[in-house]
């Protein structure tokens, strides 16, 4: 009998998701590449919270391309600060403006 299943739901630390995509400030306008870091109990909740945060920031549309769990704390900025914000309950949005 397996007592400890090996899956993402049994991580020792907090579940910090990274979502990679593009968000739009205007319909049919240019997209802005983004990384979004946040804590959530599962990927569906993470996507919902990310979309709510983007809406609160004034974005009208988003294409979310990838979602994953961060396995370790990033050391380079801006992801290191965003990770700390996510640990504190914030939804950290990193914009890659051209």
Per DSSP, what share of the residues sits in E-state strands of 2 or more residues?
25-35%
User: Overall 3D geometry?
Assistant: globular
Unreliable sequence segments:
1-6
Number of strands: 4
Strand arrangement in the largest pleated sheet: 3-1-2-4
Query: Structural class, from secondary structure content?
Result: alpha+beta
- Give the N-to-C terminal Cα separation: 54 Å
Number of helices: 2
Oligomeric assembly:
single chain
Helical coverage, percent range: 10-25%
What is the arithmetic mean of pLDDT? 89
Radius of gyration: 15 Å
**Main sheet characteristics:** 4 strands, antiparallel
Query: SSE string, helix = H, strand = E?
Result: EEHEHE
Describe this structure in words.
With 98 residues, the chain is of the alpha+beta class. It has helices at 43-56, 79-87; strands at residues 16-24, 31-39, 61-69, 92-96. It has a four-stranded antiparallel beta sheet with strand order 3-1-2-4. The chain is globular.
List keywords for this structure.
alpha+beta; 2 helices; disordered N terminus; 33% strand; globular; 98 residues; Transcriptional regulator
Secondary structure layout:
Blueprint: E1 16-24, E2 31-39, H1 43-56, E3 61-69, H2 79-87, E4 92-96
Antiparallel strand pairs: 1-2, 1-3, 2-4
Give a summary of the structure in a few sentences:
This is Transcriptional regulator. With 98 residues, the chain is α+β, with helices and mostly antiparallel strands.
């Amino acid at each position: 009998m397996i007592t400890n299943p090996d899956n993402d739901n049994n991580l020792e630390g907090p579940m910090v998701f990274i979502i990679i995509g593009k968000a739009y400030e205007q319909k049919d306008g240019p997209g802005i590449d983004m990384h979004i870091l946040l804590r959530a109990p599962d990927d569906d909740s993470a996507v919902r919270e990310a979309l709510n945060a983007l809406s609160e920031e004034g974005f009208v549309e988003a294409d979310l391309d990838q979602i994953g769990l961060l396995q370790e704390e990033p050391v380079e900025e801006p992801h290191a600060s965003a990770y700390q914000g996510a640990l504190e309950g914030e939804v950290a949005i990193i914009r890659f403006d051209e």
